[in-house]
Design a protein that fits this description.
Order of helices and strands: EEEEHEHHEEEHHHHEEHE
Number of strands: 11
Distance between the termini: 33 Å
Strand content: 25-35%
CATH architecture of the largest domain: 2-Layer Sandwich
Radius of gyration: 18 Å
Shape: globular
Number of helices: 8
Helix content: 25-40%
CATH topology of the largest domain: Ribosomal Protein S5, domain 2
């Protein structure tokens, strides 16, 4: 049987406001999330037992056993499959790579098995519900509230400097865990000025953990980005450009200047 394929796009937090913390320790978030046209690919084939093979240019260090969210997603779906994960996104990078992979496994298994996933995506991780939607959304609560929204198509450069930022340490470093939520999204026009007034509350403590994030943000600004910000808990950052040509030109320059960084132009929506 031919495998069923699904795309796992990079998730970008255009905003990430930390608005509180529950008694059980989970943080309350208010985040505008979009997805890129770059990402990983998963392929699933019905099998007699679970199997995971990780391939692609970013396969190194990615677990190929039950530790991987792809494996956990297939188990939650309730059917053994052989999974090929073709890895293009950096891991532990603040762009939802593992969560998007897991969501893609669920989509592929739904198509292959002809039935809906009846489990709870949130149990797989806070980003999995929004990654199941895989389009622009406002994510709130602890990740369980996902509301589709309409945003303009954005042209970006994504950069990861190759450092992993420990998410628990970033949250511990928050100066305040009770911050204002996002402003109301503009219905039309003035999106970038609105976006510039929002925040990623995890950016300041992430900069303490990984000062190179500041270098990435400066490089994006110097390359002509109208706005640069960190995504998620880092260390990937995005810069927004006027159009696709400007983003691609900036990405080429930044790749030449920093060959050790993961740099790509992307369309966000």
């Amino acid at each position: 049987m031919a495998p069923t394929e699904a795309f796992a796009p990079a998730k970008i937090n255009l905003t990430l406001h930390v608005t509180g913390q529950r008694a059980d320790g989970y943080h309350l978030l208010d985040s505008l999330v979009v997805f890129a046209d770059v990402g990983d690919v998963v392929r699933v084939t019905p099998a007699s037992e679970m199997l995971l093979q990780v391939t692609g240019p970013r396969a190194s260090g990615v677990p190929d056993d039950a530790r991987n969210l792809c494996w956990k997603a297939a188990e939650a779906f309730g059917a053994p499959v052989a999974i090929e994960l073709e890895k293009h996104l950096p891991a532990a990078a603040g762009i939802g790579g593992g969560s998007s992979d897991a969501a893609a496994v669920l989509r592929a298994m739904e198509a292959a098995m002809g039935r809906r996933f009846e489990g709870h995506a949130l149990a797989l991780g806070a980003d999995v519900p929004v990654c199941r939607l895989a389009r622009a959304a406002r994510m709130s609560g602890i990740g369980e509230i996902v509301e589709p929204v309409t945003v303009p198509v954005l042209h970006a450069v994504l950069i990861n400097p190759g450092v992993e930022v420990p998410t628990p340490a970033v949250f511990r470093g928050l100066a305040s865990k009770t911050n204002a939520p996002m402003d109301v999204l503009p219905e039309k026009g003035a999106f970038l000025p609105w976006l510039a007034e929002q925040r990623n509350d995890l950016e300041p403590p992430a900069l303490v953990q990984a000062p190179v994030i500041g270098d990435v943000l400066s490089a994006l600004s110097d390359a002509g980005a109208a706005l640069s910000r960190m995504s998620g808990s880092g260390a990937t950052c995005f810069g927004l450009f006027e159009d696709a040509a400007a983003a691609e030109q900036a990405a080429r320059r930044l790749q030449q200047a920093q060959p050790g960084w993961w740099v790509t132009a992307a369309r966000l929506s």
